[in-house]
Amino acid sequence: MQSPWIRFGGAAVGTVIFLNLVLKPKTFRTVMIGLGVGLTIGSTITYINSLRHHSLTAKYVPIGITGPQANFHEIQPQIYNHLSQEYEERGELELGEEHITVKPNVFAQIGVLDIGGVRTMWTKEIVPSIKNSIQKELLAASNTSDTNVESEIVFCDIGSGVGNICLQVLAETNCKKTVGVEIIPSRHKAAQTAFANAQKMFPSIYRGKNALWVEKDLVQCASTLKKEGVNVLFSHSWMFDDDLMRQFTKVITEVPSIACVITSRKLDNHLLQSTPLKLHSLAHFSADWNDKAPFYVYTRSSS
Ligand SMILES: C[S@@+](CC[C@H](N)C(=O)[O-])C[C@H]1O[C@@H](n2cnc3c(N)ncnc32)[C@H](O)[C@@H]1O
């Protein structure tokens, strides 16, 4: 078998002879100069790159700011193996739960942020916002380093479904406590089971982590959020109606520890005036229904 270099050389010489025959002398000269310059630049770049000690291969970067912890892509399928295909196909509802979906304040449609979406939300919105707004109080008081900002976050998902976001945040970041508020009982139970599985299957990742699940209508959760010291609130609230968004905003006004809110639907401007929260930006995260699902980000500072 011929060496690839001999074959490559043969092809190159053949091409030059062919071009010499078919092109006019002036055109042939221009093409050859172009090829020569391209070859020189290309091989110089390749040589310089081979001297460098890093590779350009894409690597998994954990969403936490404090170093690698876990990859939820590997964890999720294992801790959710209790969800049957029929349950998922029914839209994450048990038979017999249909009547709940038509009760006032219940918007049971599923729509989930995907793993990449949660990572973008955490790194691009939540951590910077907490640094901006509560860093001064927390860090000045305790002289805590930047890397501990995450561990000061008590993250709450309003309408937490089967608990995917809370469990990803606990696995992949330094956040130690999450609260999931969910009105559909089977989703609440599925989240509890997933957390129990997570603690059993991945003890080193979930050690010292606390996922609290609250089976309630969100309009009744202010006292729990206050008691748990929630400071970051997320809601995939795209289907909530205006009245529920007003009640949601009222809950926020009753929890002074909240420093950042991320919600698909806007909060009630009028009610929000009694809080230090201001609309900061419109962000986009990938979800199962939209690669760029829009979310409003409210923070304590508007900058
Ligand atoms: C679009 S899903 C979000 C699921 C998950 N948080 C995510 O983004 O990956 C909205 C969730 O809110 C819940 N929900 C709807 N109305 C509610 C209410 N009044 N109180 C609490 N949860 C509610 C639904 O049952 C559903 O699980």
From TrEMBL:
It is an enzyme of class 2 (transferase). GO terms for cellular component: nucleus. The keyword Iron does not apply. Its EC number is 2.1.1.360. It catalyses: L-lysyl(79)-[histone H3] + 3 S-adenosyl-L-methionine = N(6),N(6),N(6)-trimethyl-L-lysyl(79)-[histone H3] + 3 S-adenosyl-L-homocysteine + 3 H(+). Keywords: Chromatin regulator, Membrane, Transmembrane, Transmembrane helix. Residues 144-269 form the DOT1 domain. Pfam families: DOT1 (PF08123). The keyword Membrane applies. The chain crosses the membrane at residues 6-23, 30-48. Gene3D superfamilies: Vaccinia Virus protein VP39. GO terms for molecular function: histone H3K79 trimethyltransferase activity. InterPro entries: DOT1_dom (IPR025789), H3-K79_meTrfase (IPR030445), SAM-dependent_MTases_sf (IPR029063). One of its GO terms (biological process) is DNA damage checkpoint signaling. PANTHER family: HISTONE H3 METHYLTRANSFERASE, HISTONE-LYSINE N-METHYLTRANSFERASE, H3 LYSINE-79 SPECIFIC. This is Histone-lysine N-methyltransferase, H3 lysine-79 specific.
